[in-house]
Design brief:
The protein is mainly alpha-helical. It is built from 14 helices and no strands. Helix 9 runs antiparallel to helix 10 and helix 9 crosses helix 12. It binds zinc ion. Zinc ion (ZN) binds next to helix 10.
Length: about 375
């Protein structure tokens, strides 16, 4: 198996055109459903967000009204100007809502169809292409590079580090902090929400490695005829299969999060997983990405055991047919108890990290 992969690099030039056809995947699918639980602990542990601010006090409406200020922010932070009217946070009226809705903003167009100058390392070529919804992916992921000490867990094409998530987290966290210090609560809060989005993305293992498990690689694609096409076919099929599992995972987790008190993840947000010993937003991002590599293999294996091997079948495309994943049955079926418990356990660790990272960055932004 290893030999087959060592040869994969030669096919990477075609990867962009292949992955470019796949709709963008969204970590945790819906960040507001994650934030609804995260913010309970955040606001209990950190009740005063800076002098004179409260989480639920109404912000002056006129301060938020000129969404036109988005155009200035977009040119400063290299964002897609067209996204101005699509931001869920444009309706926020409290600091609580700015974080909750701001954490959803980055999946609504701010990173798509950017000029080449926003991607000097040409990462989009390997992470979703340069056009359309999937062109945002390079800012929402970070694959830290192939590491010979963990050759399978870190296997990726190409072998260098890919993705801007840590860079964006560093940039946005500093911008949010500066704005709060200058008294700009509206944009400080919104940009903190954005920062939280990218951190939460990195806690989802599919955003920290290209292949969570080799189980997701359909090696039979190598048997394609003529042999010159076998490699392209393997890459195309791997991407399709990984995307199917990525979407299946997020669909299931979202459904389980929305189950209220019956959610198997209810307690994952209530207690810290331990102190995060880091000094800066960038170090936080890298630490989280590293921890996600450690959870990726178990997440991938548990997921395949839970939802089944059929997502590898040639006719299956979960992004095009999300109903192919019976989320209600997965959440409740008694026959699936052992597999479900296994996946829930490792997912709970990711959600605990999501909460801890959100609290860490919020404290950092408000620190003196
Ligand atoms: Zn994202």
């Amino acid at each position: 198996m290893r030999r087959a992969f060592l040869h994969l690099g030669a096919g990477c030039l075609t990867l962009a055109t292949i992955v470019g056809t796949i709709p963008s995947a969204r970590a945790w699918y819906d960040h507001t459903s994650v934030m609804d639980r995260v913010q309970k602990r955040l606001e209990a542990e950190f009740p005063e967000p800076g002098p004179g601010n409260t989480w639920n006090g109404r912000l002056p409406l006129e301060a938020n009204a000129p969404i036109n200020r988005y155009y200035d922010v977009a040119s400063l932070l290299l964002l897609q100007p067209r996204a101005a009217e699509n931001l869920p946070s444009k309706d926020a009226r409290t600091l609580h809502d700015l974080l909750r809705l701001g954490a959803e903003d980055p999946d609504h167009g701010i990173d798509i169809d950017l000029p080449d100058s926003a991607d000097p390392s040409d990462d989009r070529r390997y992470m979703g292409g340069t056009k359309g919804p999937s062109s945002a992916g390079f800012r929402h992921m970070f694959w830290s590079g192939w590491d010979w000490r963990k050759p399978f867990r870190t296997f990726q094409i190409p072998a260098r580090a890919l993705g801007q998530a840590p860079d964006r987290i560093e940039l946005l966290a500093n911008e949010a902090r500066d704005r709060f210090r200058k008294g700009d609560v509206i944009w400080g809060g919104r940009i903190l929400g954005w920062t939280i989005h990218y951190l939460q993305d990195l806690t989802q293992p599919f955003h920290a490695v290209e292949f969570p498990t080799f189980e997701m690689v359909p090696l039979r694609a190598l048997l394609a005829w003529p042999p010159t096409e076998a490699l392209d076919r393997l890459i195309r099929e791997s991407t399709r299969v990984v995307t199917n599992y990525h979407w299946a995972y997020e669909g299931y987790v979202r459904h389980a999060l929305l189950a209220g008190d019956a959610s198997p993840f209810k307690e994952c947000f209530e207690k810290s997983g331990g102190t995060l010993f880091v000094n800066s937003p960038r170090d936080l991002a890298l630490e989280i990405a590293n921890r996600s590599i450690e959870r990726a293999h178990e997440t991938g294996e548990a997921l395949v055991a839970f939802v089944g091997h059929h997502l590898k079948e040639p006719a299956v495309s979960v992004p095009l047919n999300p109903k192919q994943i019976p989320v209600e049955e997965l959440l409740k079926s008694p026959e699936k108890t052992a597999e479900r418990d296994r996946l829930n356990k490792i997912t709970c660790e990711s959600l605990r990290l999501t909460t801890d990272a959100t609290i860490w960055i919020t404290r950092w932004v408000f620190a003196k």
